[in-house]
Amino acid sequence: MKVIGTVGLPGSGKGEAAAVAREAGVPVVTMGDVIRKACRERGFDPAEHHGEMAKTLREEDGPAAIAERSLPMIESELEDGDVVLVDGLRSDVELDRFREAFGDDFLLVSVEAPFETRADRLLERGRDDTDLDREALREREERELGFGMGEVMDRADVVVRNTDSLEAFRERVRAILDEDLDRIGDDDYVQVRTAGGAP
Questions:
Q1: Pairing between β-strand 158-161 and β-strand 106-112 as defined by DSSP bridges
Q2: pLDDT tens for each residue of 60-118
Q3: Are 148 and 48 a contacting pair, CB within 8 Å?
Q4: Which of 129, 178, 188, 190 is most buried, with most CB under 10 Å away?
Q5: Taking every pair of C-alpha atoms in the chain, what is the biggest distance, in angstroms?
Q6: Selection from 11, 5, 16 nearest residue 168 by Cα
Q7: 111: helix, coil or strand?
Q8: DSSP 124-153
């Protein structure tokens, strides 16, 4: 059994990593879906109120609220398979909750790229208004970093710099999903750390 969590700022490539997992038949639990579902249940537009709802859930149910709501979904997927990808950790508390639940079977992958690279990708994607406005993107990043995302990225077991070709990135993700870190251990775009994020 392996639960692979991903963390990364908007446009880093977390969604692409999730797409690679789905193509490989690996179930994906997206933490953002928990927030979008809560928005819809309360009558809010997820595109407009995602950040506010994330904050509200944490205020109502504690800082691990989104991780707690994700756990049953992860455990359900593990009943039928050996690997699950959890897309979108944002805080130390979430990371600690998953490490508590899955121990050494939890692997955290940080997907990273420079701001301008990510901003260009988001402009192409155009999923919501913040994708089109660099200042709004910076504000969104500040909010996410305020949740503790930077600390989570620092604690990752594996760091993948997504600045190479798309196919090379996808191959690195496939190696991680296959639990074959030796395959990418000498890769200049990958840093494999010891458990807990120490180099």
A1: parallel
A2: 999 899 999 999 999 999 999 999 999 989 889 999 999 999 999 999 999 999 998 98
A3: no
A4: 190
A5: 49
A6: 16
A7: strand
A8: HH--SGGGT-HHHHHHHHHHHHHTTHHHHH
7 within 8 A of 88, measured Cβ to Cβ: yes
List C-alpha distances in Å: 107 to 32, 33, 186: 19, 21, 19
Tokens found for residue 169:
């990135």
The CA-CA-CA angle for residues 36, 103, 109, to 5°, reads 55
Structure tokens at 45: 């537009």
- SS3 for 25? coil
pLDDT digits 0-9 by tens, 123-175 = 776 655 555 577 888 887 887 787 788 999 999 999 999 999 999 999 999 99
From residue 88, alpha-carbon distances to 151, 158, 165 in Å are: 14, 15, 22
> What's the predicted TM-score (pTM) here?
0.87
Q: For residue 109, how many other CB atoms are within 10 A of its CB?
A: 23
Do the Cβ atoms of 98 and 1 come closer than 8 Å?
A: no
Residue 159, Cβ neighbours under 10 Å: how many?
21
Task: State the burial class of residue 18 (Cβ atoms within 10 Å of its Cβ: 0-12, 13-18, 19+).
Answer: buried
